[in-house]
Amino acid sequence: MPREPPYFYAPSVPRRFRSAGGNIMTTLTGIDSRRGTTAKTRDRSVDLVRAILLIVVVGLHSIMAGVGVGAGGIVMENALDNLPGFAPVSWFVQVMPLFFVLGGFSSFTQWTRMRERGHSPADYVVTRLHRLLLPAVAVIGTVAAALLVMTIIGVPADLIATAGFRISQPLWFLGVYVLCSALVPLLVGAHERRPVLSLALLGTAALSVDMLRASTGISGLGFVNLVFVWLTVQQLGFWLAEGRCERWGVRTRVAVGVAALLALFLLSVPGPYSPDMYENLNPPTICLILLGIAQLMLFTVLRARLREVAERPRIAGLVNAVGARSMTIYLWHMPVIIALAAGLLFLNATVAVPLPDPLSAGWWLTRPFWLVAVGLAVIPVVARLGWIEGAKRAELFLSGTRMLTPRVIAAVLLGAGAVLVILVTGFALGGAIIALGMLAAALRLVAVTGARSTARSAAVPAHHQ
């Protein structure tokens, strides 16, 4: 997944929100408006690794795109499903646990900074919903329109359904991240009171779901761990943010990481779980928690060196560019990949451009060119649409005193539910329309909440804000 930086990218902040000392501006962006410098607490190593992980996700999804023409017609498949020996490779390229760990770090940092400035849990959640849902409206609306046009011009229904399904698959992250973000204030409080107990309870809940799924044979029960597994991994990020892991010596951290990998090996190779970490993603299992622990330990060991690299001016500039548009990159890369695949099919049909069979020698030889093509196609799309990710948020970051309101809770459920509708329907037109309606309702609810926060803040004397 995409980066949710500890300080939100805001292209501009109205003058009335620039409080004395620049506190609001610093909270939003991590930049002290009086000095033009990055806040001291910003960790560039986290920014760097999250940018790298996002690029890995885009690259891996690009490799997965297997397009060809077989005896039965056009084939559009996940090429890696048929790759022999992919299971051990998946231990290295399954990066979602570390994404959620670093997301937990950023969430902890952002919420605690907002809380120190008098913001309420509702303020935090409204902020997250805007960052996550605004770009989603754009991509879902555009993809639905494109699939409708394909239907009108006579593209075969099965090909449209396959394209919609492939585009919808990465959206699971958005739905889960909406729920995880909404629970950050609650879980940070639990962590601050009982760090070990809160982590243990979430991990135990994830293990219980796995055991219940195995004992009943009802595979659908495993999807409950879309909540418990990722909340557990997010909680690990809270430990990282407080520096708890780095209080241990390097040898201890290495030992913990090795122990986690050993437990993962025993559970997945001779044990009941799949050794393929992508099979353990759908539905999530405790294997991803163990992998996340190992990845966290590796990150802490390499962190000082990563920070040195991340602070180089050119690299910092690239990392900032990716981070400011991370959700846009994540949401749009798959539609771009599918559009490029459709272009290849068109060229094959019109000018007989050959399409090598997925996983053949010729197919692998063309992958570097394919990856470059995807990158070159994603860049202008993100440059054109990235502004949406930073739009209309400043008015939401005003002081509030209330806990989560029914409006905010309803917005969270509508946002996550919209993603669920897309996943279930595979971007069918009716499902896309319903999802867009749910997202519009969620954004309307948080806009009303933001407006009420503005009114409350305006009624408070400046020396109380």
Automatic annotation (TrEMBL):
InterPro entries per the UniProt record, alphabetical: Acyl_transf_3_dom
Q: Where in the cell is it found?
A: Cell membrane
How is it placed in the membrane, per its record? Multi-pass membrane protein
Instruction: Write down any Gene Ontology CC term.
Output: plasma membrane
**Membrane-spanning residues where?**
48-71, 91-111, 132-157, 169-189, 196-214, 220-241, 253-273, 285-306, 327-349, 369-387, 408-427, 433-451
Provide one Gene Ontology biological process annotation: enterobacterial common antigen biosynthetic process
The segment(s) forming the Acyltransferase domain are 44-379
Q: Provide the alphabetized UniProt keywords.
A: Acyltransferase, Cell membrane, Membrane, Transferase, Transmembrane, Transmembrane helix
Say yes or no: keyword Nucleotide-binding present: no
A molecular-function term among this protein's GO annotations: O-acetyltransferase activity
Q: Name one Pfam family in it.
A: Acyl_transf_3
Q: Family per UniProt?
A: Belongs to the acyltransferase 3 family.
What is this protein called in UniProt?
Acyltransferase
Species source reads Mycetocola tolaasinivorans
